[in-house]
Amino acid sequence: MLKVCHLYPDLLNLYGDRGNVIAFVQRCRWRGIPVEVLEVNVEQPVNFADIDFLFLGGGSDREQNLMADDLLKRKDSLKEAIENGLVALAICGGYQMLGRYYLTHEGQRIPGLGILDLYTRAGHKRLIGNIVIEMTIDGEPVKVVGFENHSGQTFIGNLNPLGRVLAGFGNNGQDSLEGVRYKNVFCSYLHGPLLPKNYRLTDLLISLALQRRGLHAELKPLNNDLEEAAVKAMVDRLL
Amino acid sequence: MNIRLMMAVLAAKFASFISRRFGWKGSSLPGVVARKIYPGTLRDLAGQARRGIIMVTGTNGKTTTNNMIANVIEAGGFRVVINQEGANLITGVTAAFIKHADWLGRMRFDYALLEVDEASFPRVVKEVKPQFVVVNNFFRDQLDRYGELDKTVQLVRDALKTLPDVHLVLNTDDPLVAQLQTTTGHPASFFGLAPHQRPDNGARQTREARFCPRCGKELHYDTYQYSQLGSYACEDCGFQRPTPEVEAALVETAGTALRCQVRYPAGQVQLAIHTQGFYNLYNALAAFTVGYLVGIEPRRILKGLLRYKPAIGRMETFRYNGKPAVLNLVKNPTGYNEGIATLLNIPGTKNVFMAVNDNDADGRDISWLWDVDFEYLADNHRDIEVFVCSGLRGEEMALRLKYAGVPLEKITVVRELAAAIKEVLEGPGESTYLYSTYTALWPTQKILSGLAVKEDLHAEGLSSLS
Ligand SMILES: [Zn+2]
């Protein structure tokens, strides 16, 4: 049984974020891997050590502030779980929140969880549009597509990016990098949502979660024709 | 006589002639031209209304509500000016008056009926002072890029506050709308539905306004109609659903029509409309309330509503090989959820067509499709024979259905609209439902009109409803 934790689904339900959870769960179920989803909202208890896959999305400013207040209280246990290999996906606001701080236009530093050594600063232009990146999965280059919409510009220092931008803006519109991978944590500005179309990434997350439990991580192949067609439609348009 | 107004109207009419000649449909050019020549064009033309201006704003149902109000007002024997669907920005509103004005900028009409986009509302009311403002609902729209519905509501609220004298017509079931009375201080008439009126369960969907619009605490709901509409109260500050002046009960669906019992201060009547979609009852109640407020006899109001014909893509009905085909515009999760609930309410087997474009007017980000409760549709897929997905992002639509749990063998992707429409109409279902985003709607409607016959609802034996 894999336990999926969807953090703050009540608050962070913008941009079809729940599509990521749906994709993870369905691809497990289609393979007969039992899976259970815990929806955890503000002030509800959760033990991150018990979780196999954690999803953290983004929201509007007001909602993100509520989320940040609650998440800061859980900082230590989340950090410990991540250092121990928790498989997690954080998108947009969730991604920024895992970093050290967010620097506003006024020069104010809003502290993040500080789990990842990265920071975000407010940009003057919103980075919006369809995006294609290339990432490496099992030693192969894989094109990953999505839609980005963020004004924060994130700088990841010495951390590994999730991928390189082929079309679009990415982390900050400057260094051609997109997202971050740290241990089993994957961060990205791609919503759209990310996991249903980009099934190789989804399957990587599932494999990692199984491996971590010491379970057989070889995944049964599925029919991915529609997924490939959806990615191809965007790759053909942008590249 | 105002020479500048005359010049503006003349130039705009010329621009309108040119844009028609070149086939620029829905061009905002006449409005733009007139406003350039004489910025007071809209103010001066609207000022000629003999009885007043009625505006409709909010997220879903503006076009339908405005058209229903037009039917009601005309049934009362008044002359109206109405803006064309989609022409709900300030240039479109200006163009509506120009179309009705003569060459000298003169016009004779009693009421102007204007649907106004929420974002344009503040600008429009600076120039045109409405006597009545109807607000039906506020939902998150995919064009609302930052997802901040609060800002939209605030924009409308602040603009209403600048009006010295206006009567609001508000949906009592939407807390985001109902609060406008106390927060603006204007007199208001409320309309709504009695609890437990839904013939179906509706979709299990994200609720938009779970928080009190006045104090921010979580709202307590006794019952839901759909999305955040329902019977609510805030235990913290006492804000609660106002008791409506006009309330519908005993809702029934009769084929492709809806009927209900309407209670209003002076009595009770049976109301019927020739359209599908539970949400359309709210639009009809809004129109009923406006008719009542301007003093039209209820009997005439009902006649007007019965004559309402759906606008393009608002549950617009066609016939193909004797089978009904219903076209519906979808713009946001709430609208799509209601479109799905309507389909599942109709008995019999169906073919389903879903076109998704991602042009600017559709919203370039289509991730909102993942906020639509297609799982509810997938759970009830047995009555649905085929799902044909089309449009620029047809593949993505198909993917959404796959992950919702629709069996793969029922899903096909046909990029090209004409081929896709042909395929779905030929499906084995007893009726066809077509859903389309904004920029795919007109091409779809055109193709459908070529293949199928537009249904004359009034030729059917539905008069028994009245
Ligand atoms: Zn309250």
Automatic annotation (TrEMBL), chain A:
Q: Name one Pfam family in it.
A: GATase_3
| InterPro entries for this protein | Class_I_gatase-like, CobQ_GATase1, GATase_3, Lipid_II_synth_GatD
Give start and end of each CobB/CobQ-like glutamine amidotransferase domain: 3-198
Stored PROSITE patterns: GATASE_COBBQ
Q: Which GO terms describe its biological process?
A: cell wall organization; cobalamin biosynthetic process; peptidoglycan biosynthetic process; regulation of cell shape
Give the pathway annotation.
Cell wall biogenesis; peptidoglycan biosynthesis
Report keywords, A-Z.
Answer: Cell shape, Cell wall biogenesis/degradation, Glutamine amidotransferase, Hydrolase, Ligase, Peptidoglycan synthesis
Q: What is its EC number?
A: 6.3.5.13, 3.5.1.2
Q: Which reactions are catalysed by this chain? A: L-glutamine + H2O = L-glutamate + NH4(+); beta-D-GlcNAc-(1->4)-Mur2Ac(oyl-L-Ala-gamma-D-Glu-L-Lys-D-Ala-D-Ala)-di-trans,octa-cis-undecaprenyl diphosphate + L-glutamine + ATP + H2O = beta-D-GlcNAc-(1->4)-Mur2Ac(oyl-L-Ala-D-isoglutaminyl-L-Lys-D-Ala-D-Ala)-di-trans,octa-cis-undecaprenyl diphosphate + L-glutamate + ADP + phosphate + H(+)
Among the GO molecular function terms of this UniProt record, one is: glutaminase activity
- Indicate which residues the UniProt annotation says bind substrate: 126
**What HAMAP family would the database entry show?**
Lipid_II_synth_GatD
Assembly and oligomerization: Forms a heterodimer with MurT.
The free-text function statement in the UniProt record for this protein reads: The lipid II isoglutaminyl synthase complex catalyzes the formation of alpha-D-isoglutamine in the cell wall lipid II stem peptide. The GatD subunit catalyzes the hydrolysis of glutamine to glutamate and ammonia. The resulting ammonia molecule is channeled to the active site of MurT.
Q: Which family does it belong to?
A: Belongs to the CobB/CobQ family. GatD subfamily.
> PANTHER family, from UniProt?
DETHIOBIOTIN SYNTHETASE (PTHR21343), LIPID II ISOGLUTAMINYL SYNTHASE (GLUTAMINE-HYDROLYZING) SUBUNIT GATD (PTHR21343:SF9)
Q: What is this protein called?
A: Lipid II isoglutaminyl synthase (glutamine-hydrolyzing) subunit GatD
Question: Which organism does this record belong to?
Answer: Desulforamulus putei DSM 12395
Q: Which gene encodes it?
A: gatD
Automatic annotation (TrEMBL), chain B:
**Reaction catalysed by this chain?**
beta-D-GlcNAc-(1->4)-Mur2Ac(oyl-L-Ala-gamma-D-Glu-L-Lys-D-Ala-D-Ala)-di-trans,octa-cis-undecaprenyl diphosphate + ATP = beta-D-GlcNAc-(1->4)-Mur2Ac(oyl-L-Ala-gamma-D-O-P-Glu-L-Lys-D-Ala-D-Ala)-di-trans,octa-cis-undecaprenyl diphosphate + ADP; beta-D-GlcNAc-(1->4)-Mur2Ac(oyl-L-Ala-gamma-D-Glu-L-Lys-D-Ala-D-Ala)-di-trans,octa-cis-undecaprenyl diphosphate + L-glutamine + ATP + H2O = beta-D-GlcNAc-(1->4)-Mur2Ac(oyl-L-Ala-D-isoglutaminyl-L-Lys-D-Ala-D-Ala)-di-trans,octa-cis-undecaprenyl diphosphate + L-glutamate + ADP + phosphate + H(+); beta-D-GlcNAc-(1->4)-Mur2Ac(oyl-L-Ala-gamma-D-O-P-Glu-L-Lys-D-Ala-D-Ala)-di-trans,octa-cis-undecaprenyl diphosphate + NH4(+) = beta-D-GlcNAc-(1->4)-Mur2Ac(oyl-L-Ala-D-isoglutaminyl-L-Lys-D-Ala-D-Ala)-di-trans,octa-cis-undecaprenyl diphosphate + phosphate + H(+)
Residues annotated as the enzyme's active site? 365
Q: What class of enzyme is it?
A: ligase
Which sites bind Zn(2+)? Answer: 212, 215, 234, 237
Q: Name one Pfam family in it.
A: Mur_ligase_M
The UniProt record lists the Mur ligase central domain at: 56-197
MF term (GO), any: zinc ion binding
Q: Which Gene3D superfamilies match?
A: Mur-like, catalytic domain
Query: What keyword terms does UniProt attach to this protein?
Result: ATP-binding, Cell shape, Cell wall biogenesis/degradation, Ligase, Metal-binding, Nucleotide-binding, Peptidoglycan synthesis, Zinc
Q: For the Lipid II isoglutaminyl synthase (glutamine-hydrolyzing) subunit MurT C-terminal domain, which residue ranges apply?
A: 329-441
Any idea of its EC number? 6.3.5.13
GO BP terms:
cell wall organization; peptidoglycan biosynthetic process; regulation of cell shape
Q: Pathway it belongs to?
A: Cell wall biogenesis; peptidoglycan biosynthesis
- Report quaternary structure and partners: Forms a heterodimer with GatD.
Briefly state the protein's biological role.
Answer: The lipid II isoglutaminyl synthase complex catalyzes the formation of alpha-D-isoglutamine in the cell wall lipid II stem peptide. The MurT subunit catalyzes the ATP-dependent amidation of D-glutamate residue of lipid II, converting it to an isoglutamine residue.
* Similarity-based family: Belongs to the MurCDEF family. MurT subfamily.
Please give the name of this protein: Lipid II isoglutaminyl synthase (glutamine-hydrolyzing) subunit MurT
Q: Which organism is it from?
A: Desulforamulus putei DSM 12395
